[in-house]
Hints:
Elements lengths: L8 H6 L4 H11 L6 H23 L13 H10 L20 E7 L4 H10 L21 E3 L11 E4 L7 H16 L10 E6 L7 H22 L10 H4 L4 H6 L10 H12 L7 E2 L1 H4 L5 E4 L8 H20 L8 H12 L9 H11 L3 H13 L4
Antiparallel strand pairs: 1-3, 1-4, 2-3, 4-6, 5-6
Helix pairs in contact: 2-3, 5-6, 7-12, 7-15, 12-15, 13-14, 14-15
Amino acid sequence: MNENSCECGQYVYRNECCRHLIAVREALGEVAEVDTINNVETTRRARDIRDEINRNIRGEEQDDNHFYTDNEVDFDNDFAEINDDSIEYEYENVLNGNKSTFGVELEFVGGDANAIARELYDLGIVSSPRRLGYHSRSEPGKWKLERDGSVSDGDAGGEIVSPILKDTPKTWEQIKVICDVAKRHGARVDQRCGGHVHINMEKLDTARQRWRRFFKTIEVYEDCIYRAAGGDLGRVRSNARHYATPFSPRADESKYIRFNMDNDEDVRRMAAEVSKGNRYYGINLTNIARDRAPTVEFRHFNGSLNEKQIQANIKMAAGIINASEKARFRDTEDEIFKKRGNILKNTSRLDGTQTKKKMMEFLDLTFPRRKDKNAILNVFKKNEWR
Length: 386
């Protein structure tokens, strides 16, 4: 839809002006009433409303309208009953209509890295039949298995790096095959291994308030992220203190940094200022700051060769970015997302960050579908606070 047409039944079949057109026109009408400095933000709000209405009409995102913050007993019951067997590894619409591209880096120790590479090469998944050197050139559409000094020893250990991925059955099939092949050749994970997730920043773009929501989410809920990051190991790895140091202090500091957000260069400046050029925070923005790749990297996660765990990690990272785009408490017709926006607006670190309340808030904010909440709840249950 745009300000002149809509896809809803009232407009298409009755040729009547609908509430969707009214909302967009009202938002666009603000542009004529404000000065040039505010035009960018006002136009963006109008675009957000239009995009939200289009998503709702097309039904791209499923929403169960279930909130643990309204149903603490549900949280307690689900937490008590959930286990790995109750979580399904999915292949279709895993990210609930989220079109963001993403990537993963899977570190492992042990095993025969060259044998893993050979089998994956024969299957058409990786670009080379042998383990490559660190940061070797990528081939579009192909995974690669590289040496990594933190986990490689002789012919053992390495890092399996994905190409740019989309939420398609092929992606999830490849991840499962990679896990199976790696384990069959003796690969495993331990406290040295990380499992980084990259999410395209397109949903944040040059939208100041989306970045503000993203930074507040990390500021308040980073301890929840660290707990989920433990994966199958029971707690986030000890070397996370160096390789994935808490980003929440930088997220908090971002509230006091003034920056323009009118173009890509402004985004790069913001990323450089907030990250201080350090890629070893739990949230790495240096790829954006240095114009290498338009991705937010989540470095918190332990390594894993469990496809369900890898899928949960990707769901969580993508869910945080998605919520940062959509969880507005105003300028939205969607009352359910407005409720999520108010969760973020009203939360703070003052009542603790390692609590059941914060876990419930985080799940409600990040996941419209209950089954996605359960995928992360299962990981919460297997792990301790850091």
